[in-house]
Write a structure and sequence with these properties.
The complex is a heterodimer. Chain A has one domain. Chain A is built from three helices and no strands. By secondary structure, chain B is mostly helical. Chain B has one domain. A two-stranded antiparallel sheet of chain B has the order 1-2. The chains are: A mainly alpha, B mainly alpha. Chains A and B meet through α2 and α3 of A and α3, α7 and α8 of B.
Chain lengths: 70, 246
């Protein structure tokens, strides 16, 4: 059981990394892009905007944590 | 253009990871003996070869649109992790990677560890080299497989990774010291930019949307990601100064 948890932790760390919110934001952005495209509307512009927002929010969180860490 | 991008991305990503793996193998070799360290390196290389050989052909059986969606999402996850670290280092929020300090720490830990022999090998030295090479190499293997398979050119990605391996191994053997002068953060920045660019491109296509001009949109996406990254570094530097002044 411990080894299974370690294995799961390794893959989580490997794919998701330090910020799970960024990974969740990317998954959500892909879903929204698919939903817009399914309506027959041009959706190519959405991912760059979403990536910019996700990256900036993730960086700000990391930067603020550096300065609020006790 | 995409072939060049593919080789360059695989080369740079692999070089960064191989430099880190070299540091660990050097620490294991110097402190615990070269036989165990090289056995660990060989066993990890074999394990990575098996992973690539098993996953590569399996991926080619997945329908291309599903593959591009999964690969795009994975590349974005990896790319944003690399970019995030590179931006935080460039703006001073994270310390720059120091191979010499890491080497000194690994060396001290390896020297302090007890002696245990298994299969005629110093077990600590073997597992240190094995784990180091396997973990650093796994990311390279994933980048080579995902990047190469979405383009239908795993061979080109493997070529880039192989060239990096040869270069780092040759330089490592020549200097027999951690490669501290490699501009690791610049390389991480470049790789993060490329992975994020292809991640944006393929996840969008995989989600059913289409880029105006198809592949011709790639240079525009690269420019966008670069602009975004440099803008983030500038804003974070200002933020750090305002934190320092407060």
């Amino acid at each position: 059981m411990r080894r299974l948890a370690q294995f799961g932790h390794f893959w989580w760390d490997f794919v998701v990394g330090d910020d799970w919110r960024a990974a969740a934001g990317i998954a959500l952005a892909i879903g929204i892009t698919a939903a817009i495209a399914a309506e027959g509307i041009a959706a190519w512009w959405f991912m760059p905007v979403a990536v910019a927002a996700v990256l900036w929010l993730s960086l700000r969180r990391a930067a603020d944590n550096e300065y609020t860490r006790p | 253009m995409t072939a060049g991008f593919l080789i360059a991305s695989a080369f740079l990503a692999s070089a960064v990871e191989f430099v880190e793996a070299l540091t660990i193998v050097l620490a294991a070799g110097v402190s615990r003996g070269w036989r165990s360290a090289l056995a660990g390196l060989g066993a990890a290389t074999l394990a990575l070869t098996v992973i690539v050989a098993a996953l590569g052909p399996a991926l080619t059986r997945i329908p291309i649109s599903a593959l591009r969606l999964v690969v795009g999402a994975l590349l974005l996850a990896f790319g944003l992790q690399w970019l995030r670290k590179a931006i935080l280092r460039a703006s001073g929020f994270k310390a720059l990677h120091d191979e010499e300090a890491i080497f000194a720490q690994e060396l001290a830990e390896a020297r302090a560890a007890g002696k245990e022999e298994r299969a005629g090998l110093d077990w600590y030295g073997f597992t240190l080299a094995f784990k180091g090479v396997l973990l650093e190499g796994l990311e390279v293997a994933f980048i080579v497989i995902t990047f190469g398979s979405a383009q239908g050119r795993i061979d080109l990605a493997a070529l880039g990774a192989g060239a990096a391996l040869v270069l780092v191994a040759v330089v490592g053997v020549a200097v027999r010291a951690p490669l501290a002068r490699v501009p690791e953060n610049t390389m991480k920045f470049a790789v993060g930019t490329m992975l994020t660019t292809f991640g944006i491109f393929w996840s969008t296509e995989g989600a059913g949307a289409h880029w105006p001009g198809s592949d011709a949109a790639l240079p525009a996406i690269v420019a966008f990601v670069l602009l975004l990254s440099f803008g983030a570094v500038t804003l974070l530097r200002r933020r750090r100064l305002s934190f320092s002044a407060a």
